[in-house]
Amino acid sequence: MEPLSLKIKTLVKTIPVANEETQNSILVRFEPNQTVNFGETETKIALVLDNSGSMEGQPQADVVKTLGELIGYFRATDWITGVAFGSHANTFYPLSNQHDRLREWSHLRFYQSNVGAGGTTNMAEAFEHARHELQKEGENRLKRILILTDGMPDSNRTALQAASLCVEQNIAITGLGFGNYDADFMNELCALSNDTVWDMRDSSEGFTYLLDRINAIQDQVADNIQLEIRFLGKHRAIDSYTVHPQATYNGKIRLDANRTWRQHTLPVQRQEGLEVLFNVKHPQLTPGRKNFAQVTVYYDVPSMGLSNQKLSQDIFVEYSNTEAMISAMDHEVKARVNDAFVESQRIKADQARKAGDVDQAVKLWGTIKKRGNSDMQRLAEGTIKKLKGGTLTESDARQAAAGTQKKLRIKE
Amino acid sequence: MPNCPDCGHSYTHGQVICEECGCDLSPIEVKVPKAKAAVDNTPTKTVSVADAPEYYCDPNQLVDGINGCGSVGTMVGNICPKCGGLWENPIPALPAHKTASTVTQSQPVNTDLSLAKPVEPSSHIDDDYPESTAASYPMLVVEGNQTVLYEGGSVSEIPFDVDELSIGCRDTEQGHYPDIDLLKYRNHDPFLSRQHALFFKEDDKYFINVLSQADSTGFNSKSDIMAAGERREIKTGTRIFFSDSIVITLK
Fold first, then answer.
1. Shortest CA distance to A184 belongs to which of A20, A408, A402, A348?
2. What is d(CA B163, CA A220) in angstroms, rounded to the nearest whole number?
3. Which of A34, A326, A341 sits opposite B46 (nearest CB)?
4. How far, in Å, CA of A149 to CA of A395, rounded?
5. What is the spatial distance between Cα A126 and Cα A147, in angstroms, rounded to a whole number?
6. How many angstroms separate the CA atoms of A45 and A411, rounded?
7. Of A82, A123, A270, A274, which residue is most buried, by most CB within 10 angstroms?
8. A402: which DSSP letter?
9. Contact flag A326-B119 (C-beta cutoff 8 Å)
C-alpha cells in the first residue's frame, strides 16, 4: 500500500454547456494512509534564539524557562541543538539527543551571557551555526530550524542568503516573532519554506508555540513534497491556496510551456494531511466527459527510507445540457473555497491598511466577519473597532495579519 | 456575465462567493431523503435561491451580539444577506413579518445562475418537506473548526439523517469502524474509547447513549459527566464533550 494517498474533488462535477465560461474549484487532498506504519519520525531541530540587547530581562527569562519545560517533550529520536544570536552567534548546545544535558545550568547560563553588545542582530551567522550543527548525525532525519526573534537582522540580504542555503539543504525554517520583530522580513524568510511567521503576543507564549511546532515536526511523515498540476485543452487556472492545515495564499497560477504549475508544499503530518485548492475556469465545450487536468505529487518519507515517491491522478468534469445532470456542489470543497476567500480578503485588508485606506480595510474586515469562522469573526470585530477608532497598533495589525485559523486556535 | 444581487459586481458562472461583498452566490441544495433517493436515484436537487424559503431577521433577537435588521428574505448559509447576521436557527418568515418589516420584498438574490437552473418547486422537491426548511434533519457540528473522520473525509458537520451514528476510535485489528472516527485525537487523549457513544433517533427525538466506561463524556459541560450506558435526549444547542478533544453540538 502507498504510504500516502491522493484524493481529489471538484466543487461541481457537471459544467453547463450553455455557459461561455464556468468557474470551478479543485481540492487536492494528500494524506497519510492510517493503516501504514510510518515508524517514529527522526528529527534534527535547531532552536535559534534571539539574544540581542532587547531580549535582556523578562524575555530572556521566559526563553530559559521555556527551554527547561520543553526538555520533557523531546524524544530519544529527536536531536536538538541550541543557537543564540546577538552581535554574534554561539552554539550554546551542540546537536545531541541527551536532552538532560540541556537542563544543565552551564548551557542556559551560556545562553544568558550571550547578550550581544552594540544592539546588533547577526541572524545570518546564527543560520550558519544551525546549518553546521544540522549536518551532523545522519542525512535521513527531518531537519528544521525554529527561529524565535523580537527584532530585525542587521542585514536582511545576508540573513536571507544564509537561510536560502539552509533551505537548499532541505532544512525548513519556521519563524516565531514577538515584540517589535520585522513581520515582512520574517514572512519573506519563512516563505522560503512555504510558511508564514507565527506571531506571538509576547515571550511568555514561547513555550506554547515552540511545543506546538515541535509536535508538528515530530508528527511529520512526508517531506520534500512537490505538487504538479497540468491543465489540458483550454481550461485555465486562476490561483491556488493551501487550505489545510492552515489557509495560505500560494499566489496566481502561471503555467509553463507544458501548461503545468509546480509548487512545493508544507510537509504532511501523520494526523492532519494537506489540502490545496485550485480555482479554475472551464471553457465552453460540447457535452461529454472531459479530462481537464492531471495532478502529480512527488514526496519523500524519511522515516521509511523512501524518496521521490509519486502519485498521479486525472481529473474529469462532465459537460452537460441536461438539467437533471446539473449536480450538487460538494460541501467540503465549498467550505474550503470559503476558507480561501477569507484568506484572500484578509490579505487585501492588510494591503488596504498599509496603503492608508482605512475605509476599504474596514469594508474587507466586514466581509471577513460575514464569512469567517467564529475565531475570525471575533478577530474581525476587534480589528474593525480599532481601525474605526484609529487605535490599531502595528502589533494588533500583525496579529490580524497572522490570524490564520490554526494560529488562533493555538492562542486560545 | 451575471451580477451579484447584493452589490451588483459581475461574476463568472460557477463562482460561489462574490469577490466584492462576500455574498453567497451558490445555488441552494435541497436534499431528498435517502428512502426517496433510492427510488429515483437523484439524491440532490438544485433550486435557485429565488425559490428557497424566506426567513425573518428578527430585530427583537440578538444575532452576533446585535439585533436583527428586521428584513425578510432568503438566507444563504444561515446568513442574512442584508445585515450579515449569522443565525443558528433561522426563523421562517410569516405573513405578519412581511407586513411588519420595512423590507417587504424578498432580496432579489441570484436569479441568473445557470448552475442553479430553477426546477418547479412543487413537482421536483419532495412533498414531505415542510415549506420553511430546506432540510428536515439536524446537523452534528464539531466546534472550533475541528474535524472528525466521517465517510472517508475530514468534516466539521455531519448530517443526522440516519437512525444511528456511532462515534469512537477505529480499531483496524478488530475491524471496528465507527461512523464518526476520533482516532486522530486518541494519541493525545487516552479517554476516547473505540465504542465511545451512539447518537440515535427515536420517535423524532434525538438521543445520545454513552458506551464508554472512561467517564469522559460531558453533557452540556465538562462537569456533567454521563455514565456508561446512560442515555439522554439531545436537543438543538446541546453540546456533548468528548473528553478534552472534541465538542459536538446538535444544530
1. A402
2. 38
3. A326
4. 14
5. 9
6. 23
7. A123
8. T
9. no
Contact between A351 and A324 under an 8 Å Cβ cutoff? The reply is: no
Chain B partners within 8 Å of A331 (Cβ): 157
CATH of domain B139-250: 2.60.200.20
Residue of B nearest to A7 (CA): B153
Name the B residues in 8-67 with CB < 8 Å from any A CB. 11-17, 19, 21-22, 26-27, 29, 42-46, 64
The gap from C-alpha B47 to its chain's centroid, in whole angstroms, comes to 18
Q: What is the pLDDT along chain A (412 residues), one digit of tens a residue?
A: 789 999 999 998 888 888 888 899 999 999 898 888 888 888 899 999 988 888 888 888 888 888 888 888 888 889 999 998 888 888 888 899 888 877 776 666 666 666 555 567 889 999 999 999 999 877 778 889 999 988 788 888 899 999 999 998 889 898 888 887 888 888 889 888 877 788 877 778 888 888 888 888 888 888 888 999 999 888 888 999 999 887 888 888 888 888 899 988 888 888 788 999 999 999 988 888 999 999 999 998 888 888 889 999 999 998 887 654 455 678 889 889 999 999 899 889 888 888 888 899 999 999 998 888 887 888 888 888 888 887 776 666 666 666 544 455 454 4
Going by DSSP bridges, is the β-strand pair B197-202/B153-155 parallel, antiparallel, or unpaired? Answer: unpaired
- Taking the CA of residue A315 as centre, how many other CA atoms within 13 Å lie in the half-sphere pointing to its CB? 29
Contact B94, B131 (CB under 8 A): no
Q: What angle do CA A44, A46, A49 make, to 5 degrees?
A: 165
Q: Where are the domains of chain B?
A: 1-101, 139-250
Q: Which residues of A touch B27 (CB under 8 A)?
A: 329
CA distance A179 to A205: 12
Residue A187 neighbours by CB under 8 Å, 6+ apart: A175, A196, A197
Domain A43-218 has CATH 3.40.50.410: yes
Task: In whole angstroms, give the CA distance from residue A209 to residue A375.
Answer: 18
User: A273 in the Ramachandran plot: left (φ > 0), alpha (ψ -120 to 50) or beta?
Assistant: left
C-alpha A198/C-alpha A147 separation (Å) is 10
Measured between CB atoms, does B141 come within 8 Å of chain A? no
CA distance A93 to A81: 5
Pairwise CB contact (< 8 Å): B16 & A329: yes
SS3 content of chain A, % helix, strand, coil (to 5): 40, 35, 30
CATH match of A4-37+222-322 with 2.60.40.3670? yes
Contact call for A337 and B16, based on CB within 8 A? yes
User: A405: closest CA among A197, A171, A246, A276?
Assistant: A246
Task: Give the integer Cα–Cα distance in Å for A167 and A131.
Answer: 10
State residue B204 phi and psi, 5-degree precision: 60, 15
- pTM score, whole prediction: 0.60
Nearest C-alpha neighbor of A212 from the set A10, A3, A8, A407:
A407
Binary contact (B14, A324; C-beta < 8 A): no
Which grid coordinates belong to B250?
446538535
CB-based contact B116:B49 (threshold 8 Å): yes
B12, B86, B115 member nearest A326 (Cβ):
B115
Closest-CA residue to B135 (of B31, B62, B40, B233): B31
Q: Read off the C-alpha cell for B68.
A: 436583527
Which DSSP category does A332 fall into?
H
- Residue A257 phi/psi, 5-degree rounding, is -60, -25
